[in-house]
Amino acid sequence: VVKRIFQMCAEGIGPTQIARTLENDKIYTPTMYEFKRTGTRLAGLNEELPYSWSVRTITDMFENVIYLGHTLNLKTENISYKDHRKRIRPKDQQVMIENTHEAIVSQETWDIVHKLRDGKRRRTKSGYKSIFAGILFCADCKSKLYFVSGDSIKSERFHFICAKYRKKGRDNCSIHSINEKVLYEIVLEEIRRVTEFARERTEEFAEYINKNSETQLKKDLKDKQKLLDKHRKRLTEVSTIFRKLYEDNALGRITDEQFQMLSQGYVEEKKQLETDISELETIVAEMRIKSGSSKNFIELAKRFTDIQELTPEILHTLFPKLKSTKKSRM
Predict the structure, then answer these.
(1) What is the DSSP secondary-structure string of 287-304?
(2) DSSP state of 309
(3) What is the dihedral of CA 185, 119, 30, 92, to 10 degrees?
(4) How buried is residue 105: exposed, middle or buried, by Cβ count under 10 Å (0-12/13-18/19+)?
(5) Per the structure, how many domains does the chain have?
(6) Quick one: what percent of the chain has pLDDT higher than 90?
(7) Is residue 74 part of a domain?
(8) Is position 273 within any domain?
(9) Half-sphere exposure (CA, 13 Å, Cβ side) for 9?
(10) pLDDT at residue 151 in the model
(11) Which of residues 211 and 28 earns the better pLDDT score?
(12) What tens digit of pLDDT does each residue of 310-322 get?
């Protein structure tokens, strides 16, 4: 069920639609499933509505790293040394221990879901949401392109314009307008053409991409990747140390106070490593795009064959960012 929920989201289906689908398919809610399995009555259990999934339950699942095989610790703390009631700690003070159990959701699916969630598509007055919303950018000012539909339900009128132009006028940027229907046809045809080229003429495609990569960019990419690998290795070491401390605490070998004292330094280091890794991953990803990561693209091209229509999954996997020039050429 968890895999299905994440896959539906990766395909562009929203939490409300997912909840409705699960209810129609008579899939037990988590609390009802646990009650049927163990007889435990968890908070929120409603035996009269065993299939009534809430949107909150769905969205909470998208943030739960347990499905990636990780464990989140130090989630709560006492209000004070006198008041032992629990409260949720800020996210930056919680500690994630990686690879504590088998993952249910792949990292790739998780990333696609979060890209879609981070760039939530705004529903217009007409009720329509564009699959391009959140990934279209102005080539000149770097602003996102704003989706315009008004009250119209006619797709011919749907279009994108530069958000900076819309907000501040033509003195700051040009309109960069492009019709969504035209854009759809252009992108679909381009994806078909490029993926076929990558599959059928692999060596020629790789040569074309690689010859357009600059030597210095490749060197910088190698250096950044080396630093990223070093940070990832250290993060794994810190996670292992923290896991052992956690086990010692759980088994009573060390007290809660000792655990807090011993783990504090690693908590700070882990937070810094995660921040550095996140920044480096973004830099490396952008550099790979610039230098032409032909091998990765060829592998993706082999996955997507006979593409009949665009989906959020295809778009975010193959082309996570599109730019529009003054002449509306992507």
Answers:
(1) HHHHHT-HHHHHHHHHH-
(2) S
(3) 150
(4) buried
(5) 1
(6) 14
(7) no
(8) no
(9) 29
(10) 57
(11) 28
(12) 887 788 777 767 7
- Domain span holding position 39: 1-65
Determine which of 197-201, 216-220, 264-268 has the lowest per-residue pLDDT on average.
216-220
Q: Tokens 């988590």 correspond to what residue? A: 30
Residue 224: name the closest of 160, 281, 299 by CA. Answer: 281
**Element containing residue 21 per DSSP (H, E):** helix 15-24
Residue 153 is assigned to a structural domain of this protein: no
Q: How far apart are CA 118 and CA 97, in angstroms?
A: 24
> From residue 44, how far is each of 31, 41, 52, 273 by CA, in Å?
7, 8, 11, 38
Residue 189 lies in a domain: no
Is the model more confident about 206 or about 25?
25
Q: Which two tokens stand for residue 146?
A: 């704003």
Point out the least confidently predicted range of 205-209, 235-239, 308-312.
205-209
CB count in 10 Å sphere of residue 252: 7
- Cα 122 to Cα 100: distance, rounded to the nearest angstrom: 37
How many residues are there in the chain? 330
Task: With beta carbons less than 8 A apart as the criterion, state whether 88 and 75 touch.
Answer: yes
Do residues 206 and 245 touch, judged by C-beta distance below 8 A?
no
Per-residue pLDDT tens over the stretch 97-123: 888 888 999 888 888 888 777 765 555
Dihedral in degrees, nearest 10, Cα atoms 322, 323, 329, 330: -20
Query: What six digits make up the tokens of 128?
Result: 């329509």
Indicate the pTM of the whole model: 0.48
